[in-house]
Design goal:
17% strand; 8-stranded mixed sheet
Length: 203
């Protein structure tokens, strides 16, 4: 199990990557990492390009704040995903531009255009719109807790992984697939079903 100090360093590195890759802007989005029965999460209202290790909020898995300031208003769906998935140790929520274009249009993301889409994302569900920070949104997200990646209608995207790197990679791939889909248009052909089945067996 990673130490709290290492978890803080890695989470800040993840925030910087997301910001520098334009996967999140300003104070939008929230990221967390679990180690043991503790969770570190980004604070409410802090720019992800400027957030520091000291800004991160330490919580227990029940949602009690142990140290730090005010956690992100979305912390409840992070905790819900951790409770549903014992193997998941990182959750990333962003508002990537191309994902948001599709999420606002009401279009599903087709993750079967390339092998990487199938391997990293598989089927990407769309979570119905609910007010950010609400218990209704927590419930809506939890309904898709088994998905490595999901789109939030008119809101953004969530990825989860066994590590921060895996959750980050899935977010980057999700935005790439959304961008590709927009560039190719609605007539883009998916991989053959037999190839999709082979790739799913490789996951």
């Amino acid at each position: 199990m990673m130490s709290e100090a290492y978890a803080r360093t890695r989470l800040i590195e993840c925030c910087r990557l997301l910001y520098n890759r334009n996967l999140t802007v300003s104070a939008g989005g929230n990221m967390s990492v679990r180690f043991g029965d503790r969770v570190l999460i980004t604070p409410s209202g802090v720019n992800k390009g400027l957030v520091s290790e000291e800004d991160l909020v330490l919580m227990d898995i029940k949602g009690n704040v142990i140290s730090g300031g005010k956690p992100s208003i979305e912390h409840k769906f992070h905790l819900a995903l951790y409770k549903a998935n014992p193997e998941v140790n990182a959750v990333v929520h962003c508002h990537p531009l191309y994902c948001l274009v599709l999420a606002t249009r009401g279009e599903e993301i087709n993750s079967t255009l390339t092998p990487e889409g199938v391997l990293l994302l598989d089927v990407v569900p769309t979570v119905r719109y609910e007010t950010p920070g609400s218990d209704a949104l927590v419930k809506a997200v939890a309904e898709h807790a088994d998905a490595p990646a999901m789109i939030l209608a008119k809101h953004g995207a969530i990825t989860q992984g066994r590590s921060l790197e895996e959750a980050y990679n899935r977010m980057e791939e999700l935005e790439f697939q959304a961008h590709l889909q927009i560039l190719l248009g609605k007539d883009a052909e998916s991989l053959p079903q037999e190839e999709i089945d082979i790739l799913r067996e490789m996951r």
